[in-house]
Amino acid sequence: MNINCHKNHYHYGPAAAALCLIFAFASCAASGLEGKAPSGGSPKGAAPGYPSVTFCVLSDTHMYDTSLGTSGAAWDAYMAEDRKLLKESEETLRTALADIKAVHPSFVLVTGDLTKDGELQDHRLFARYLADLTADGIKSYVLPGNHDINNPAAVRFLPDGRTEQVPNVDPAAFVSIYLADGYGSALSRDPASLSYVAEVAPNLWLLALDSAKYEHNSGRKWSETSGAIRPETYTWIESVLKDASSKGIAVIAAEHHPLMEHIKAMKDKYPEYIVDDNWKLASLLAAYNVRLFFTGHYHASSIVEHSWPSNAPQYLAGKTIVDIETGSLVTWPCSWRAVTLAGDGSASITTNRVAQIPSYEAAGRNFDTEGRAVIANGIGNIAADTMKGYHVPQKDIDRLVPDIVDAMMAHYKGDADLGQREMFPPKNSLSLMGRIVVKSYTPFVSGLWKKEEPADVHLMADNNIVIHADGTWTAQ
Asked: How many CA atoms does the CB half-sphere of 405 hold within 13 Å?
């Protein structure tokens, strides 16, 4: 049984994707964790050390120019299904960038989904904010997400309830708009995608990967959610990594789609939130001593690690790679990260939040409180609607929904700690259908609360952490 509770699966966002598929008892064979051996053998010698540098990471900013409309039946329907804080997206970004300037980073990395749905108008607006950073001496590097290119959902919302198409951007336009934000200064660009490599600091390269499947969007109503590295791109990636290795240059990497499971059974239940053939990519990167991989897509603050054992193939034995997923500025708690690399090979990561914005403060409102309520209510409504479809009694829905909401919100925030509480009410207090829901939801909710690790992945502290050169870590 494979349940899809809306014709536009992604339009509900990550929480809905999880909740709508929670009854799908799917299974799939585990992928190989070793990938293909590097051509020409494994890099020789120790991994290059990092330079001392601080940078910031944003993801899923979903910039929306409100002149494209914030009223009418079509807008209301969109927001009921999506639950992003789109009206506040520009002010939230402006506030985050003001805080980032106070950090004085060397550069800012944005890991995709820059815009609501790839509207040309929104891309241009977002680029203007990056230009403001550049004017202050802070370089920006962007890469595309699944919403950003060839998106058929680029529309204007009209007060009379209709929508009308507005220009979106194709790959060439994306590069043109963001020439100053990575593409124009790239050391090399992949001919098969919008991937590129740039020198972001002395002896440090950023491998910015394009995992979006925008070539699949033609004839669709919504953009393709899942992501993949194109076959030709793997050859280009290895050539870049070989070049860096031969020159003793350290490499960090990024893409929109997560590299590993952050929740148990993530691949089985909603694989569109992990890049296709993830272990092929992970093993290639790790073989060439890439240890830090920055992602987004799921709108959550989450950090996980894979370590290859000493008896793995020689090119991977003892290697580690860490997937650092950054939350969204338009999904509570509206977070971004600051990262400091040190010469001893460590990475110190702190998570920051936009808890208040000027317009709310002027009106005596609390952005953090209201933003949390918007997202929590959206998750609760989706969970309730899903259970109603299975004829779960309302009294059980009323008892189960708060537990599901709490787990999702904790995962978004990156502070999942259930403590001594129970995940759900006692089964004997529920109806038959209520008990079925608990049985179906338990693996997922347990994963959200970090009670169980995903297969082949180690959970780490999600927000404030020091990752050491040997893969061990310390919570800050």
From this structure: 20
Adjacent-strand bridge partners of 325: 295, 302
Half-sphere exposure of 362 (CA within 13 A, CB side): 3
Decide: 213 and 229 in contact? Cβ < 8 Å.
Answer: no
Round to whole Å and give the CA distance between 209 and 256. Answer: 8
- Concatenating the DSSP letter of every residue in 155-166 gives EEEPTTS-EEE-
Kindly state the greatest CA–CA separation across the chain.
66
Positive or negative: CA dihedral 434, 391, 21, 83: negative
Strand pairing report for 302-307 and 250-254: unpaired
Cβ pair 65, 120 in contact under 8 A = no
Tell whether the model's pLDDT for residue 42 goes beyond 70: no
Residue 333: cis peptide before it, omega within 30 degrees of 0: yes
Confidence of residue 29 (pLDDT cuts 50, 70, 90): very low
Cα separations in angstroms, 64 against 58, 86, 88, 162, 476: 16, 6, 8, 18, 34
* Counts of helices then strands in the chain (DSSP H, E): 12, 17
What is the rounded distance in angstroms from the CA atom of residue 28 to the CA atom of residue 216? 24
Say how far apart CA 285 and CA 238 lie, in whole Å: 8
* Distance, CA of 430 to CA of 248 (rounded, Å): 61
End-to-end Cα spacing for the chain: 43
Whole-Å CA distances, 368 to 85, 101, 151, 334, 371 = 11, 21, 30, 9, 5
Give the start-end residues of each E strand in 182-309: 188-189, 196-201, 204-208, 250-254, 292-295, 302-307
SS3 174: helix
In this structure, what token pair is assigned to residue 353? Answer: 């939040």
Q: What is the mean pLDDT of residues 455-463?
A: 94
Q: What is the pTM of this model?
A: 0.93
Specify whether the CB–CB gap between 92 and 57 falls below 8 A: no
Residues of the chain with pLDDT > 90, as a percent, come to 82
Which residue in this structure is represented by tokens 């300037």?
101
Q: How confident is the model at residue 83 (pLDDT cuts 50, 70, 90)?
A: confident
339 membership: H or E segment, kind and range: strand 335-341
